[in-house]
Amino acid sequence: MRTQRYLLLLMVFAIFLSSCKKSSTGNSTETPTTKPKYLTQIISVETGPAFLGSHVTTSNIYYTYDSKKRLSTVKNSDNSLITYVYKDDGNLFSTTRTNANGTMQGYNEFTYEGGKLTSYTSKGYRNNAVTSETTYTYVYNGDRATELHFDVYYQLFTYDSNGNLTKIFNHGQPDYSIVYSYDNKKNKFINSPFKYPVPGDNERLSPNNRTTSTTEGLSQNILTTNTYVYDSDGYPIAGTQNTDYVNSSSYKYTYIYSTLE
Fold first, then answer.
1. Peptide bond between residue 174 and the one before it cis (omega within 30 degrees of 0)
2. Residue 89, Cβ neighbours under 10 Å: how many?
């Protein structure tokens, strides 16, 4: 049961935590700027399933950056917080997840060799005590991470010619895949990327925005479609997300940026 819950969590992360995607056209009258833009806020408006009354809920995610313009914190509407810490060489050292009371919920620590991320250890907490610990190990083809191993399970990664992550094959109980397609615009995280695939945090990996996510190999295929409106610099400023799974919510997004100046 622990394995099944874990794999289901990965699937949900990959489908629904990809809360930024695109595909539509949309023109802006803004004056283009050559200065990099950094995502500082996502406003999410969720419309729940009809059988539950189609209730509308608005939430926010806030992003802050350090003096070197690296992602520093991610704060949700419930005041849960993810904090990023970096090594002197600029590589990500750790992420810490806390709840609204500041109580530790999770901790990841990253290990590098030869300039590549070779592994990371993820710990889960309850009442400030470690309740789970998993080490993830990467396999590379050249400079690209193509496999991630944990326990007796693994993920295989496929990329397109632009470096977008196009497929994740999950070996477990059961095996299943998630297939992605992309636009040709700037990923909202293009200026704060993380070039390694990490379960639950894969959206910063690709240079473009996901337009579809298709889960294959389970009891039924699940398709999530995203559309975007872009500004004159090619950044998504609004979007939608819909999933063709019974009783799924739909979402509308607004993306807010800053040049951090």
1. yes
2. 8
Could you give the number of structural domains in the chain?
A: 1
In whole angstroms, what is the distance from residue 108 CA to residue 251 CA? Answer: 29
- Looking at the DSSP bridge assignments, the partners of residue 210 are 21, 182
Q: Is the pLDDT of residue 98 over 70?
A: yes
- CATH number, domain of 190, equals 2.40.160.190
pLDDT of 7-48, one tens digit each? 333 443 343 334 333 334 444 445 666 899 999 999 999 999
Structural domain range at position 68: 2-258
Which single residue is written with the structure tokens 């998504």? 236
Amino acid residing at 62? Y
- Closest to 194 (Cα-Cα) out of 111, 109, 117: 117
Six token digits for residue 142:
């050249």
Q: How far is CA 144 from the centre of its chain?
A: 18
Instruction: Report pTM.
Output: 0.85
pLDDT in tens, 104-128: 999 999 999 999 999 999 999 999 9
Q: pLDDT (tens digit, 9 = 90+) per residue, 228-247?
A: 999 999 999 999 999 998 88
